[in-house]
Amino acid sequence: MNYIILFVLKLLDCTISTFKTFFMIKEKYLVSSLCNAISQFFYLTLLVKVAKNNSFAGIIIICMATFLGSYFPMRKTNKDKIWIYNILANSQEESKELADILRECDLDVYTNKGYNFDVDKILDVKVISNSRDDSRIIENLIPGNVTYHVLESKKVSF
Fold first, then answer.
1. pTM value?
2. Which residue has the higher pLDDT, 80 or 97?
3. How many CA within 13 A on the CB side of residue 35?
4. Where are the domains positioned within the chain?
5. Cα 128 to the center of its chain, rounded Å
6. Pick from 45, 54, 56: which is nearest to 13 by CA?
């Protein structure tokens, strides 16, 4: 039994099956159904090959391909998310300084006039993070005495 063929078949089966689920969630039913049919082809081909040669090594290879076939497509979908930081500093000066520093880091920063909990006029700072690296930068730049909230959202493309 050729283990490379087994590995590739299961990797394709699992990857396409994972994308089938993502397309179903995004309500792209035709693409989801097509992925399901293609995935079944690879699965049934794999099943016939494994049934012919009962091998423990083949089972281990299939398990590794299943792991990788699920893991990589799931990592890809994290790119479909953004994180919005809503930062409420203690003063307008602190808000402006923080917004300027975040802009210097080439981040998307939006400010609105608002009030803090003591009803002092401040700038409400919103920062968009497209990655974990951006989030680390943002969180390292926010002073410890500043209140902030993080909202996870889907990226919308038109």
1. 0.53
2. 97
3. 17
4. 3-79, 81-153
5. 15
6. 45
